[in-house]
Amino acid sequence: MRHVEMVMGTAVSIELAADRPAPELRALIGDVCGWLHEVDARFSTYKQDSEVSRMRRGELTSTGCHPDLRHVLGACADLWRATDGYFDAYYGGVLDPSGYVKGWAVAEASQRLVDAGCPTHFISAGGDIAARGDRVWRVGVRHPWDETKVAWKLAVRDAAVATSGTYERGGHVINPRTGKPARFLRSVTVTGPDLTLADAYATAALAMDRDGLRYLEKLATDGYESAAVTEDGRAFTTPGLPVAT
């Protein structure tokens, strides 16, 4: 069963590969969509009544917020330390955990499906993909200059794929060392076992500008393979990238 839901400012595609009655599958999809809308309501930086917006205005503290927000704040702090400050949810002194939230939300949605007895499924949300179960999923990584083409075709099994780039929103990722938009890398894709980390790593590598390529090489030793395209059109991949044959 397939379903597309508009939430978190993007189209989320959900595919369940399970031999179960249609009403059960619809209920599972409904649970996933409900969760994603709950995340959007709590973490949106555009909704004035979200907990993140209220915290930004000083109306809410970490002690009074939902446990999910406390988890996200703690995870962002851990990633800030792990990436030497390149992943920064407080850059400029304003809270914006968006670089973590979408990947985390999809990863949590995927785990809900596993816990509900639907281990084989595919969720795609604006560059963040959870491809779960004992089957090979084909994933096309968008070409960073031509949305009608793909730069790479990947074949992944029970893995995550996350892509971050400047080709849609321009220089929205800031290099904290320079205070300027990161421009050296146009697109970064990271694959690995954990979507939340893959998403954060892709964002951090983009923020690092030239140092991002060396950072991606180091990630491969921890099981996270990658592909990147520079602003001047050069392509780089780590040796273990699961390219489809």
What is the element layout, followed by pairings?
Layout: E1 2-7, E2 10-16, H1 22-43, H2 51-56, H3 67-82, H4 98-115, E3 121-125, E4 128-132, E5 137-142, E6 150-156, E7 159-165, E8 174-175, E9 180-181, E10 185-192, H5 195-207, H6 211-219, E11 225-230, E12 235-237
Antiparallel strand pairs: 1-2, 2-3, 3-4, 4-7, 5-6, 7-10, 8-9, 10-11, 11-12
Catalytic activity: L-threonyl-[protein] + FAD = FMN-L-threonyl-[protein] + AMP + H(+)
Pfam families: ApbE
InterPro entries: ApbE (IPR024932), ApbE-like_sf (IPR003374)
Overview of the structural elements:
This protein has 245 residues and is α+β, with helices and mostly antiparallel strands. It has a single domain, classed as Roll (T-fold), CATH 3.10.520. Helix content is 34%, strand content 26%. It is built from 6 helices and 12 strands. It has helices at 22-43, 51-56, 67-82, 98-115, 195-207, 211-219; strands spanning 2-7, 10-16, 121-125, 128-132, 137-142, 150-156, 159-165, 174-175, 180-181, 185-192, 225-230, 235-237. The strands form 3 sheets. The protein has an 8-stranded antiparallel beta sheet with strand order 1-2-3-4-7-10-11-12, with helices on one face. Helix 1 (22-43) packs antiparallel against helix 4 (98-115), helix 4 (98-115) runs antiparallel to helix 5 and helix 5 packs antiparallel against helix 6. The longest helix is centred in the first third of the chain and has 22 residues, at 22-43. The chain is globular. 38% of the residues are buried. The mean pLDDT is 95.
